[in-house]
C-alpha cells in the first residue's frame, strides 16, 4: 500500500493486476487501483478535480486532468473517508501513476492540492 498525507488529508492506494488482452492488435496490461481519501483534519473538504501523470515503460508520459473522481465530487467530513476504485491500461507490464487532488476547505474556502503518492504497477510475471 502507498500512503501520503497532505494538510491532514491521507491518501492510500492499493493496486492489482487485472490481466492482459489484445486491443487493436496490440497487447495491453490492465491494472486496477483502489484509493481511500481520509480526512484527518478538523474541517470538511470537497474534492473538485484530479490530475494524473501516468508512466508506461513503453510509452511517453500521459497526463490526465478532470473533474472529481469517477463522476463524483465527494464532500469528506472530519474523521470520514471516501473510497473508490478505477483502472489503467498500459502497453507495458510495468508502470506507475502519481498526481494530486484539487480540494476546497469548507471552513476557510481555501483551495489546495493533496498529493497522491506515486504508486507502481507490475504484472506478477514481470517481477524478478
Automatic annotation (TrEMBL):
One of its GO terms (biological process) is error-free translesion synthesis. Residues 3-128 form the ApaG domain. SUPFAM superfamilies: ApaG-like. Gene3D superfamilies: ApaG domain (2.60.40.1470). PANTHER family: F-BOX ONLY PROTEIN 3, POLYMERASE DELTA-INTERACTING PROTEIN 2. This is Co2+/Mg2+ efflux protein ApaG. It comes from Flagellimonas hymeniacidonis. The lineage of its organism: Bacteria, Pseudomonadati, Bacteroidota, Flavobacteriia, Flavobacteriales. The gene is apaG.
